[in-house]
Amino acid sequence: RSPYDREIVRIGLPALGALAADPLVSLVDTAFIGRLGAVALAAVAIASAIYAAVFAVFNFLEYAVTPLVAQSIGAGDRDEAGRFTVAALAISVMGGVIAGVGLIVFSEPLLRAFGAEPDVLESAVLYLRIRALGVPALLVVLVGHGAFRGYQDTRTPLIVTLGLNAVNLVLDPILIFGLDWGVAGAAWATVVAQWFGA
């Protein structure tokens, strides 16, 4: 046992919960989209793979801001921690807008390059273009998570992640089946949830 055990658990458990809850959005979307048939499921799967690849490029923002903020807080310089956070948020918004526009403009050639068959291409393009509108929000959420961890607050990212998932869970059936938007409904539910999280 260590005198730091309690503090490690206080910080570590919510962080683990937030990491575990992150993939739930995709899991929920897949569960609902699967009820629309194989073509819809294939369209969402291939579009999601491209979205995940773009997202992976910006993953460094979340993990870069945490130690910078933590070091500033440890040195007692909250102003510097704030500057690092604001700078990372600005980069995430700018990068998100650029990536989102890129996904909208190049969605069809990207999907073809990833092997999208003609029967799934139209739905995949629609899904990817709508999801692209959420890239800035998703990056803001990620940077926010990283900054909060630097401030030793892992509960807030957990609450944001659970709230985001709850919004998606409620909107998915309404937009996919209630309004009969299908694949577009799943994409809009996720985009709204991501902006809610941001």
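(ticket continues) Second input and output from the same batch:
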Amino acid sequence: MRTTVCSVLFIAATAVLAADNPAWMNKSIAEWNEEDAKQLLANSPWVGRAELQVISDKSPDQRRDGGDWDEGIGKGVGIAGTGILGSRRAQEAIKEAHEKPSYGDVMIRWESAAPVRAAESKLGESAASALFTGWYSIVLYDVPVPEKWNADRLKGLAYLKRANKANFKPGRVEIIRHDDGMATVVYLFPRSEEISRRDRDIIFVAQLGRLFVTRYFHPSQMQFEGNLEL
């Protein structure tokens, strides 16, 4: 009786785990259909959404030392700074003036991974960059990039962070600007710097004007059919 109960519980637990896994995980790439591809490109170990965050305001000393008194300061403090509103209302007004609007989130793909490229191909999508051989490719879609910012500037403000290792900088950045003012940005990191299963967590960090984005990747999860796919 005890053995029967344990067997039933094991089967039930296995069924729950199977139900939690997307269908594409239990198929070969050749067996994927369009729905499998859509699921992988919506949310998977290589793909997800990351919040665009605003760089915090600088103090007066930081602005003075940087030579720009207006850099990194909330707009519209105005009359609240005079104190005539009273201490409580002045504090509320200043707080509102320094509040940053939400810029939403962006899609980010570790696009050099074979499963990602296969899913894009299944849906008839073109990869953002043709460079895969020799590069890890991480792509941000539909992000606001200031016109004055070029690829070299973005390259200097991005990196991959791993435990007990120096920050890994991109060797190249590509900007694909769109008519609506947004851009697709491709960060290319040379494969001469090995990333392995031993790297438990990888944090991608990039600055885009006054905004920045971070995204965690986990090599232990970025595997398909027994292979680490990066």
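Agent notes: Residues 1-19, 62-86 have pLDDT under 50 and may be disordered. The two ends are 48 Å apart (CA to CA). Closing as not reproducible unless the customer responds.
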